[in-house]
Amino acid sequence: MKHKGKQKLSVILGAFLAVTLLLSGCGNSGNSAANGGSAADANSGSAQAEKQVTITYYNWDNEAQSAGTDAMLQEFMDQNPNIKVEHKVLVPGDSVEMLKKLDFLISSGEAIDVVQLPSLGAVLERATRGALAPLNEFYEQESLVPEDEYYVNAKVDDKYYGMQYTKSINYVMLNKDALDEAGLEVPKFGWTWDDYREYAKKLTQGEGVDKRYGTYFHTWELYMNAPAQTMMKDPFLYDDGTTILADPTYKYFFQLRKDMEEKDQSAKPYSDVLAAKLNYRTEFFNEEAAMILTGNFTIPDPGNTEQYPHDFKTAFAPVPVPPAGSEPKGYEGKYFTSGNMLAMGETSENKEASFKLMRFMTTADSDNRAEFSGYKKANNEELLTKLVAGKEDMYDMDSLKYTLFDDDIQFLDGAQVMTTATSELTKVIDDGFSKFMLSNEPIDEVQQWMVDEATKIINEKGVVK
Fold first, then answer.
1. Helices marked H in 87-182
2. Which of 3-12, 40-49, 244-253, 355-364 is predicted with the least confidence, judged by mean pLDDT?
3. Mind listing the pLDDT tens digit for each residue in 171-223?
4. pTM of the model
């Protein structure tokens, strides 16, 4: 027993001696407290030993947007000194061409860390091709429920692939001075497209070159069937994967557009809009039209009197709802919302750092943010204050805040079924609308043609679930 005790003591003394020698060696280090260094100095050594990584952030910023993005990325790097972010603008100001270049990079095997994509559909399309990494494990590590965090979530087979970066909604801008002259109140949620038609009649005045139309409809699909584009989860498909071009809103809104042009003469003719290649902002601010359906990207415009000279105040209203009997299938009384999304490349070698950047960019209440955030807990009211600062007299602020933030205004969940054939289906809508408005083909025949064409395309391209 005594022999074993001595053996154990020998081992302990040997270990102690080894530790003493090790500490003695460290004591000769310039970072040691014994040589004038502090405990903080010693800790900095371990921080420096932490792995330094570089990740890349891709988007399509124009020059003005790029400055804001760079400033936000610098904020992130200041908070995360071990992560360096390189900002690569693939095609400045052009999201369509940017996607083409991105797909080329993906196909060539380039490591993609974080990429900003223009829509939910753009995320889902690339997720189904295996180009994007699912985010589930990172959400779980942070104990986050995506639906509690963002208005729209990109999801395929219970896997999450994108975070909503910006929040886009539609609304109606109205000439407040013209409303006052006509004795009209600023509309609230619940006004219908029939009400919109009556407003347009009362706001129309003058003749010829001096005429002010009650409203202006641009050439985009948004103006061909506003209920389908603003109050359905997806502008092309029902939840069962079939085309929405069979929806009753098409017949209703196509006819409304024709009646407003031909019977009421309260909207500029579609043929004139096409021929003149008009600008919708100019039509409104030049007082060619008293109302226009648009989106929250135009919030700075009423205050930008240098680019859009005008002296009237602008009011805002929620998008009209379809009248009883003309509601879209599955109508919930809520609005479609979308926005740019951030996604992570499957080929990223630094996924944890990429996820951290995605969360920062989507959730930070940064002074450098220029667009509303898709993060449910973001302080978008503070951003609004910044966007209109010094120009408040050009806005009917009460109606703007109501339209953007009131509890009456509710939003649909993101679509779970989408198609990659958006450009082909968009052309079907454009062609069908032209057949009805310009060729006077019967609405029933036009709608059936649209349904048949869309069904062929969907069957060929398939759907994303």
1. 95-107, 120-128, 136-141, 146-149, 176-182
2. 3-12
3. 999 999 999 999 999 999 999 999 999 999 999 999 998 999 999 999 999 99
4. 0.80
Residue 288's contacts (CB-CB under 8 Å, 6 or more residues apart) are: 212, 213, 216, 268, 282
**Cα-based distances in Å from 327 to 231, 377, 423:** 9, 31, 25
* Dist. CA 98–CA 111, nearest whole Å: 16
Give CA angle at 287 (285, 290), nearest 5°: 95
Q: Helix-strand-coil percent breakdown of the chain, rounded to 5?
A: 50, 15, 35
Give me the torsion for CA of 419, 423, 428, 429, rounded to 10°.
90
Give the count of beta carbons closer than 10 Å to the beta carbon of residue 444.
9
Tokens for 235? 């502008």
Q: pLDDT digits over 58-105, tens only?
A: 999 998 899 999 999 999 999 999 999 999 999 998 998 999 999 999
- Among 186, 192, 193, 263, residue whose Cα is nearest residue 223: 193
Tell me the average pLDDT of the chain: 89
Q: Which two tokens stand for residue 360?
A: 């920062």
Distance (Å, rounded) from C-alpha 252 to C-alpha 328? 10
Residues contacting 193, CB < 8 A, separation 6+: 226, 227, 252, 253, 256, 320, 321, 322, 323, 326
What is the pLDDT averaged over residues 239-254?
A: 96
pLDDT average, residue stretch 315-321: 98
**Which range is most confident: 45-59, 65-79, 407-421?**
65-79
Dist. CA 341–CA 165, nearest whole Å: 5
Q: What is the mean pLDDT of residues 315-328?
A: 96
Q: In 10 A of CB 331, how many CB atoms? A: 15
Scanning 150-265, the segments in alpha helix (DSSP H) are 176-182, 193-203, 226-230, 248-262
Closest CA relative to residue 166, chosen from 88, 279, 12, 61:
61
Q: How many CB atoms lie within 10 A of CB 91?
A: 16
Residue 373 three-state SS: strand
Residue 150 pairs in a beta bridge with 375
Eight-class DSSP state of 321:
B
Cβ atoms of 186 and 174 within 8 Å: the answer is yes
Render pLDDT for 397-408 as a digit per residue (tens, 0 to 9): 999 999 999 999
